[in-house]
Specification:
Elements: E1 6-7, H1 9-17, E2 26-33, E3 39-46, E4 53-57, E5 60-64, E6 76-82, E7 85-91, E8 97-98, E9 104-106
Parallel strand pairs: 1-6, 2-5
Antiparallel strand pairs: 2-3, 3-9, 4-5, 6-7, 8-9
């Protein structure tokens, strides 16, 4: 059985800072075909769906749809605030390679 993705406390803190739960929203992490390496991440605020895996801490939630879940097995969802910008990041053990921007990968 594959491990579900995990979410760092820093990612949940950022969701709280932007008030995602106050708006009835969750951080949706999905995998789509495309990008320069074959697959790309789609990360956005969205309402949770009935079939989504929900990872929650307090009132904040991260959701993953059933189709994306196998591609994110064992992944770590984090938030990085660096000089080049602030963004949610994904450390994916299933990715065999990724592009320089970190939003596209291959398996």
């Amino acid at each position: 059985m594959n491990l579900p993705p995990s979410v760092t406390p820093r990612a949940f803190e950022r969701l709280s800072e932007i008030g995602a739960a106050d708006q009835g929203m969750a951080l949706r992490v999905a995998v789509e075909g495309g990008g320069c390496s074959g697959f790309q991440y789609d990360i956005k605020l969205d309402a949770p769906g009935a079939d989504d895996l929900v990872i929650a801490e307090g009132t904040e939630k991260v959701v993953v749809d059933p189709i994306s879940l196998p591609f994110l097995a064992g992944a770590v969802i984090d938030f990085a605030d660096e000089l080049i910008g602030a963004r949610f990041t994904i450390e994916n053990p299933n990715a065999t390679s990724s592009c320089g921007c970190g939003t596209s990968f291959s398996i």
